[in-house]
TrEMBL record:
Residues 287-358 form the PUB domain. It comes from Leptomonas pyrrhocoris. It comes from the Eukaryota. Residues 193-220 have a biased composition (Basic and acidic residues). Pfam families: PUB. This is PUB domain-containing protein.
Length: 371
């Protein structure tokens, strides 16, 4: 390039002398020779497809263009310039870097690397999902535990309130009855204080006599139950003939229900296998089979829906429980081994409630009963 050419026309290929051209992300120099530039094969082919000459493309790279858009703008801006198609200055070189084709071994290694990355990513996602699922289950268990505690507190409050109301009602009836007797005594000439004291004394004496008569009557009924049982086994009474009431079933259920406090006050059974074996060996066999069937139904209902408080609460006064489970003490012990506790409902009746559900214990007991 001549000095006269430099005066008549601005330089296109040579960058400003005040600073060296900065390499673009698409070009690279070797760090030692700053006059060597590079352009990717794909960018070069795209510019050639636009109809630009190879010399113009290389000069746009030397000028600092970095992609197809900037190269196109630079070349179009300098179209018609006499130096656009002149050879490159000595020492300035633009190398077109073709995309290297991977060998079969490199391709397999790259595929394995990508597969390993995908596998690791999938494992990480699976672990994250498992962690979130554990957190969700823990939260559900905590919420269920809190709900059970709140229900227990509410149930105890209801029971206490019912007891207070019952005591207040009895006290109100007592005062009314005493006041009626006191008014009658006042009309007979007694003073107010004397009449009230006499009426209160008479009420207490009558209550004491009632309790004594009830105890005596109960004793007579229990004594009459024994000979009636023997009589019923030998020969049934004829229709219309006078006989003694058979209260053996009632007294047996009452006695078994009275033992619940003792059963639940003692130590928790350690082995479910021994309890189930004792239930299955109980005689008569029909009663044992009915007890096993009832226990299996109770446990399977709870396992199916462990959050239903109704299925986890057993009323002792129901016929099914009183006839199938209550007569066999080991059946009650098995329920206690599963986690049931004895409580009293708002009406004063006994209930057996499972506050904390341990699915593992329930399934183990159900499996033993199903053998």
């Amino acid at each position: 390039m001549s000095a006269e050419g430099n005066k008549t026309a601005p330089s296109v290929a040579k960058p400003p002398t005040s600073r060296s051209p900065s390499p673009s992300p698409l070009s690279s120099d070797d760090g030692n020779d700053r006059n060597t530039y590079s352009i990717s094969q794909s960018l070069f082919d795209a510019l050639v497809a636009r109809g630009f000459s190879e010399n113009a493309i290389k000069k746009s790279i030397v000028a600092g263009c970095v992609d197809e858009s900037t190269c196109t703008q630079w070349i179009q801006l300098h179209e018609g310039h006499p130096e656009l198609d002149t050879p490159m200055e000595p020492g300035v070189e633009v190398v077109v870097k073709a995309k290297r084709i991977l060998t079969e071994a490199e391709r397999e290694a790259k595929v394995k690397e990508l597969q390993e990355r995908a596998k690791q990513k999938k494992e990480a996602e699976t672990k994250e999902l498992q962690r979130k699922e554990r957190e969700r289950l823990d939260m559900m268990r905590k919420m269920a535990h809190m709900k059970n505690e709140m229900e227990d507190v509410r149930r105890k409050m209801d029971i206490d309130e019912a007891r207070r109301e019952k005591a207040a009602d009895l006290e109100a009836r007592r005062r009314v009855k005493i006041q009626i007797v006191a008014d009658r005594l006042q009309r007979k000439g007694m003073s107010k204080d004397e009449a009230y004291a006499t009426a209160e004394r008479e009420f207490e004496e009558a209550a004491e006599r009632g309790r004594a008569e009830a105890a005596e009557k109960l004793a007579k009924l229990q004594e009459a139950a024994q000979p009636s049982t023997a009589k019923s086994t030998s020969a049934p009474a004829e229709d219309g003939a006078a006989g003694v009431w058979d209260l053996s079933a009632i007294t047996a259920a009452a006695s078994a229900e009275a033992k619940l406090d003792t059963v639940f006050a003692g130590a928790t059974p350690a082995s479910a296998e021994e309890l189930v074996a004792s239930i299955q060996q109980h005689t008569p066999a029909a009663q044992s089979e009915e007890c096993v069937r009832t226990l299996r139904l109770i446990l399977s209902n709870i396992i199916t829906d462990p959050f239903d408080i109704k299925k986890r609460t057993l009323r002792v006064s129901t016929k099914a429980f009183r006839e199938a489970v209550l007569p066999i003490e080991d059946a009650t012990q098995l329920l206690r081994w599963c986690g049931f506790d004895l409580s009293t409902d708002a009406t004063g009746g006994h209930t057996i409630c499972l506050s904390t559900v341990l699915i593992r214990k329930l399934r183990h007991a159900l499996a033993l009963l199903s053998r």
